[in-house]
């Protein structure tokens, strides 16, 4: 007798073992299929749990599909649920397998148990397979007329699922009309709510292309349906109440009496335990009374108590959502909430995001009657162990000071913060003191007396250091050590990595120079030299601007940089009134929580940075139409993020227009003299200011004369050939070149370098980029030969460096061409 075959031990549901586990499950399911032995359903439950466990962790158990379907012939609701879950998961990705489920799902739709009928109908509609929609119509039609409210509820949503699979089939079966009739006659409130939800989505999507759908939408907002829903609102679930209230908020009453009737009907919804229902009711009240100013203000008074109750009850997340809506109302009517300021005091147990929002609200509702109490409370938070909250509280004190007329006590409190000897407190206070001095210049003597004792070395926060530097430059005549402090900061220029600080330092040294020139002369020269060599484009440009301004006229420079002080009356708001009104229109939505209109986080164009392609096929060549584009998928060797522009679109070279021609030829005036931007550093008048500031005269590096290599003055190269050569040739020379200061100053746009290189018989086929990085593709042709030189030149104006890569048909001549190219590049801007 043969020994029994030992079956491998199956893995636990939490640790499935892959193919062997699936095979084992199939065998066991097949053995139990159709079994009516005692305990068979319990065994099936264990097997179904293992199948669902495998499916959950990502193991493909679709091979057991037929066995699962065979085991579904049971009256056990739990087994049915697990089987439907399995079928719904694999039917979407395996439409052929879904055909196996149609018969037993349709059979279950006629089961005696309404729970199984509803589950089967829901699973049938969830298959979402296009070629199976014909099997959905009859079960859905029967489901809408089923005597069980649960089945009708499922059928109402099933119609919406059918619409998303096949809108044509949904309309041909006249399901929208059936849903409308069911909504107006069904005694079950949940069925009515599901019908309403499905109709809203179907007709909203159809309204753009169908006048009938638009009329149906208008009918939903009609008086008869609105009143029908309002009279049954207490029967609805919380979700359904929010749906109905959102519909009511868009209804336009015929007169004021109707408005008061609706508000009286919804009055008790303001005491509902669910915060979503309360907020939806408030939205209705606010929108109904928008045209009634006095009543609208009374609505604010009425909704205060429910909102403040919700803030103190429930989870921190709910409190935050309600606070966001309160914050919106406070911004619109701060006076109405000024007496309730104590409700917005921070509790020890509040999360930081709740505390931050409460601080903003305290700032908004502060007025002459409660400023002292609010500022006193905020000053207590300044010593909070939670550093971000301490910083926010200091900012709140400063904002209150900027919006009040009597700021004596508040300024004293702020100056006391500077004596706390906490870095983050000092940093935030310096920023606020700067803003206070901009609005209240009369406080300069008191503030400067305290600020002058603060060492710049102890400030690490960039914004705070920038604020201190601003005060050193703005009030250098009142601060004896200001020139020497600024000089020490300039000496440590390389150690300061923040562009914001460097920008403020340049401006402060310039201001100090016009007030105390002998003491600041050396520091200004060093600052301008460091700024011109800075890698940050903004810092470089500001230093260059100041340098040219001083060269032009020192008196003009003083009027530009150091004009008479004018107090700032109003600081710019972070949000426009139009944005705030739009957020208010979207009350009771994520727009209020995000504090931005919905289109800013739902529309695709607002959801991410614009990405430039790295494909060489984006090189635009020739005419304005953009049709002449190199279509190859050849990639750059570098990771280039620049959008390369057509040179013919940008140049005004007087040459013939090509009108879509696929050939690029040199302009006819390539050998004529071209007027380029000349740096004023070559003028004798500029030497005086260079000598005064200790900058000296920067000489252009002298290169050896270029070797004897003659280039064709009018080479012709079509884009396809250029790209083909670029992809096939290897790099024969790779070098780095240095531009002169005059060259950097002249490179305000790619066209200036393009024209200069054309004068040297080197043509540009494409260019692009944004400061400080520019990218060029040049080509040249050897005189009397068919040999071409292709050049990729990447220029960084901040470092005055150019990375050059050359590919040549004749590699032996590439060194000579490289020298000629570098010679032409080094002379850029000197003539």
Automatic annotation (TrEMBL):
GO MF entry, a single one: clathrin binding
PANTHER family, per database record: ADAPTOR COMPLEX SUBUNIT BETA FAMILY MEMBER
Assembly mode: Adaptor protein complexes are heterotetramers composed of two large adaptins (beta-type subunit and alpha-type or delta-type or epsilon-type or gamma-type subunit), a medium adaptin (mu-type subunit) and a small adaptin (sigma-type subunit).
Gene source species: Rhynchospora pubera
Domain of life: Eukaryota
GO terms for cellular component: clathrin adaptor complex; endomembrane system
Cell compartment(s), UniProt: Endomembrane system
Domain Beta-adaptin appendage C-terminal subdomain, chain residue ranges per copy: 709-826
Pfam short name (any one): B2-adapt-app_C
Stored InterPro entries: AP_beta, AP_complex_bsu_1_2_4, ARM-like, ARM-type_fold, B-adaptin_app_sub_C, Clathrin/coatomer_adapt-like_N, TBP_dom_sf
Gene Ontology terms describing biological process: intracellular protein transport; vesicle-mediated transport
Stretch list, region Disordered: 1-22, 646-677
Keywords of the record: Membrane, Protein transport, Transport
Biased composition (Polar residues): 7-20, 656-671
Task of the protein: Subunit of clathrin-associated adaptor protein complex that plays a role in protein sorting in the late-Golgi/trans-Golgi network (TGN) and/or endosomes. The AP complexes mediate both the recruitment of clathrin to membranes and the recognition of sorting signals within the cytosolic tails of transmembrane cargo molecules.
Recorded family membership: Belongs to the adaptor complexes large subunit family.
Signal keyword on record: no
Name of the protein in question: Beta-adaptin-like protein
